[in-house]
Amino acid sequence: MGAALERNPQLEPLITQPSEAQFSEAQPRRRDRTPVALYATLLPPLVWMTLLYFVPIAILISYSFWRLEAFDIVREFSLVNFQTIFGNTAYRTVIVRTVMTALGVTAIDAAIALPLAFFITRFGGRYHTLLTLLVILPLWSSYLVRVFAWKIILGYNGILNSALLSLGILQQPSQIFLYNQFSTTLTFVHVWLPFMILPVITAFERLPKDLLEASADLNAPPLTTFRKVALPLVTPGLLAGSINVFALTMGDFITPNLIGGPSGIMLGNVISSQFGVSYNWPLGAAFALVVMLIVFLALTVVVRRGALE
Amino acid sequence: MWHRLITAFLIGLLGLTSGMLSAQPAQAAGCTLTAIVWEGYTDASFAQKFEQETGCAIKATYAGSSDEMFAKFRTGGGRTYDLISASGDITERLYKAGLVRPIDTSKLENYDSIFSPFQKGDWNSFDGKPYGVTFAWGPNVLLYNTEKVATSPTSWDVLFDPQYAGQITIPDNPMTIADVALWLGKADPYDLTDADLAEVKDKLLELRPSIRKFWATAGELANLFQSGEVVLAHAWPLTYTQLIEADYPVGSVNPKGELTGWTDSWMISKNSRNVDAAYKWIDFILSGEGQKGVMDVTGYSGATELGVEAVGPERAKELFMDDLSLHEEIKMWQSVQNYDKWVQLWNEIRS
Q: What are phi and psi of B61, to 5 degrees?
């Protein structure tokens, strides 16, 4: 490419110069004003972000390198919190469990969202908007309400148990539905599903129909068309949805607290207990940093694969 | 052009203001007291009377553990809360951190009515001066569903009965370790060596498969009973009162020699801006009306003669307020030196 440009030196001015000249001649005053408007618009959010985002993160990071001694926070640099986190099998288990749960929830949501979004965009027809709205509808109710709803459905005297009893499938209400990894995963899959479906729907909407038809015309079976044509083109949407779901699951502590099992705590619970019951803010901050690093790592992977294009 | 510029600026500003509105501090004015308390200590049923009598209101935050209470009370240099209902495990910590002020007992009309052993307890008086006003105490009890558990249990061993596996709940609080230490026969459950803690861990791991859920708030615990998830619980008497009111078949026992508990005292923040109102509140809680209110709502035992009069001798005997025999038997919550190890053990149990 560089060599091509060198061989045609006249190409460069041809592309850039006329447009720039045209712009400055035609609207000389506009160029002067644009930056002012831009800064005026950007300044308040910038102040906002600095005060409420960057400063707190800086404070959090500095806390994570301090330590707690006899109920007092010692403001000296030390790595003792990270030693505790990575040196303790219990904490390592929690990290692994949280990442696995987040990955599992993401995979299940992706598996549900793909066919659903495909159906809505291809066969939704005039109900397309309505169906999309129905996907977003749960978001209008409180997150807590949705979590509690699962508690009512899966509980010992819950809806599921009552149904199975009246159908004669069970003789006794079963305890296997609630307070374990299954109920946690199920609830996560349900409450975060809209965050996966929406970007995937958008991706399918932008998928040109004629590409699929061209693929079919060239005798590709439907599955091959999906695999070779549709999937690569909706992947950015899928990845954007995945990072949503992954990040939301990584940081959540309410669902494992309300629905999860006695030995099923996640990183969010550890963080909340360090900031709450145990008053070990440095260790809690270190855990929060670990969560952020994992999410940023996932974000990097996803962005490299073109999620935000 | 200007029009566009202004619009752009306004849009940017809008993002800022919408957040600013909610970020405005809810600053208490005049004699609105703020307090951090255990659930039930500022219940509307009696707090309303205080408001009518004095014209002062009390706004409370509920804490889930002593450490949370301490942490929240300390943030903001002790200006966030005027009052704290501190249990015996943090009173000394609050005093040492210089967060509370000595109590001027002459400002409390009802102070003399407090049972004399509670007036100069080692948990509320430091350096010869009272820093806390004790007003309530109680044990951690064993609650059971009287329909599902036929015979009234006499010891905590019932939690390990395979018959009730999967139907028990214990508090999600590292202080529960002290109870397990008592079950193991440790003399001082608040002074545990690493070896003791290892034993406690084994005992808890043995119990864990039977635990349906660790409960975090009194409300959640009552819900666990009512939805049929659990039949046995390590609980506060508060839940017993709540379940009785809800007509739930619940029984409560105090297994002998294996009880932990708490003695709660009001303490006033050193930096409080409503000191006079805080004294009024404490005086009100010591009065017959206040004591009866606390006892009725929580089921805890009161600490004043006026309280005994208000609830009558029978109820006072039920709550062991006549001879305080139970109070002496309970291993009251104390400061734990190696508390970080307790927390770590607890996280290991939960993971």
A: -110, 135
